[in-house]
Specification:
Blueprint: E1 12-13, H1 15-22, E2 26-34, H2 38-50, E3 58-64, E4 69-75, H3 79-95, E5 107-108
Parallel strand pairs: 2-3, 4-5
Antiparallel strand pairs: 1-2, 3-4
């Protein structure tokens, strides 16, 4: 069951807070704008990704546009680690309450993304 989100939940810029807490996982110029319910979910998934080891993962953006969202990242792990990051990020998008209309991927090993990378999707 998809968690319900209050229509009037205020969006907060968590970028600086996240830079302080997980600076090595936050890309320069990253923007993180979520509501109070979404932020702890993002932290939970960043911890899961950190547990994968040293894969040079960086979050490039995670923004709730209401309507729509932007989520992007980059990492340099093995193929298996890349697949696991893709799976976790897909789960994150769903857990944040965004609708996912295509597979989210980041850039691995300096290669171009496998699909739409700056995932700006409109909610239906």
């Amino acid at each position: 069951m998809k968690p319900l989100r209050a229509a009037n939940a205020e969006l907060i810029d968590y970028t600086r807070t996240l830079e302080f807490l997980a600076g090595h996982m936050i890309s320069e110029g990253c923007s993180v704008i979520l509501d109070e319910r979404q932020y702890p979910i993002l932290i939970e998934y960043l911890e899961k990704i950190a547990a994968l080891g040293d894969i040079n993962f960086v979050l490039e953006q995670c923004v709730d546009h209401r309507p729509g969202h932007s989520v992007s990242w980059d990492n340099d792990g093995t193929r298996e680690q890349d697949d696991e990051v893709d799976r976790l990020m897909s789960e994150l998008v769903t857990a944040l309450g965004f609708r996912e209309s295509s597979r989210h991927t980041g850039t691995q090993n300096g290669q171009a993304p496998k699909s739409d990378h700056a995932d700006r999707k409109q909610l239906k």
